[in-house]
Amino acid sequence: MNLLIYKTQAELFEDLIDYIVNIANQSISEKGCFNFVLTGGNSPKALYELLATTYKDKIDWSKVFFFFGDERNVAPNHESYNGLMAKNAILAPLNIAEDHIFYVDTTLEPEKAAIEYHKAIVNHFKGGDLAFDLILLGMGDDAHTASLFPGTKILNSKEVEIDSVYVDKLSTYRISFTAPLINKAKNIAFLVFGEGKANAVQHVIEDEQKNTNLYPTQLINPIDGHVTWFLDDAAASLLDS
Ligand SMILES: O=C1O[C@H](COP(=O)(O)O)[C@@H](O)[C@H](O)[C@H]1O
C-alpha cells in the first residue's frame, strides 16, 4: 500500500492527475485502451473538471472506457445519479463517445440493473479477466466505499460481480461492484479528504484486527494490483506518523 498525504487539495489533485495520466498512457500503449472506473459522491467532481480542462491533452480520451464502481438507485437525470455528475464534469466536456461510457441503467429494478451492468462488463472484457486498469474510489465518513456500506449483505459476497444491495440507513437500494471485483483491479486509488473522514481513515489503515462489517473499506486489498491512498492532512490527522 502506498500512502500519500498532501497539505492542500490542489496538491493532492495535481499528483492524483499525474498518477491517472501515467496509468492511462501506459495502458493505452500496452493494449490500446484504458479501462477506468469512476467514483461517485462529491469528492471527485473538481478532479474530473480538471481532467477535462487543464489536463485534457494529457490523455487520448478516444481510447478510454468509463465505468462506475457504484450507482444510486435514482433516475439517470436525478441530481444524485453518479453518472450525471460525471457526465457534467468530465464526459460531456470531453465529448466521450456514448459507446465508451458504461452507465448503470437505473430505469431497471436494482437487481436487474446489476445483472445487466455485469453482463455489459463481461462483454466488454470479451469473457476474459475482469481486471480494470484503474478503479478510483472514495470513502464515506462511515468507512463505506463504492456502495459497500457497513452491515450490508453485499459485504459477504465472494463473487466477482456487480450486485444490488439494500442500504437500511439510507432506505434505498444501491448497485455496486463487490469487493472481490474491486480487488481484481490492476490499480486502485482512494481519493479521500476532509476532517470528517479522519476516523474512518484511521480504522481502515491502522486497525490490526479488521472489522470489515463496521469498516467495509478494509475489504479492499488487490490480489495482484496496487493500492494508493491520496489523502489531505485533515483526513490523515488521526494516523500515527
Ligand atoms: O455515496 C457515495 O459515497 C462515496 C463517498 O462520497 P463522498 O461524497 O464522501 O466523496 C462515493 O465514493 C460513492 O461512489 C458514492 O456513491
From TrEMBL:
EC code(s) of this entry: 3.1.1.31
Statement: the UniProt record of this protein carries the keyword Hydrolase: yes
Q: Which reaction does it catalyse?
A: 6-phospho-D-glucono-1,5-lactone + H2O = 6-phospho-D-gluconate + H(+)
Gene Ontology MF term list = 6-phosphogluconolactonase activity
| Hydrolase as UniProt keyword | yes
Q: Which UniProt keywords apply?
A: Hydrolase
User: Which pathway or pathways does this protein act in?
Assistant: Carbohydrate degradation; pentose phosphate pathway; D-ribulose 5-phosphate from D-glucose 6-phosphate (oxidative stage): step 2/3
Q: Which residues form the Glucosamine/galactosamine-6-phosphate isomerase domain?
A: 8-229
Task: Determine the domain of life of the protein's source.
Answer: Bacteria
Q: Which Pfam families match?
A: Glucosamine_iso
Q: What class of enzyme is it?
A: hydrolase
Output one GO BP term.
Answer: carbohydrate metabolic process
> Which family does the record claim for this protein?
Belongs to the glucosamine/galactosamine-6-phosphate isomerase family. 6-phosphogluconolactonase subfamily.
Q: What does it do?
A: Hydrolysis of 6-phosphogluconolactone to 6-phosphogluconate.
What is the recorded name of this protein?
Answer: 6-phosphogluconolactonase
Please give the organism. Answer: Pedobacter frigoris
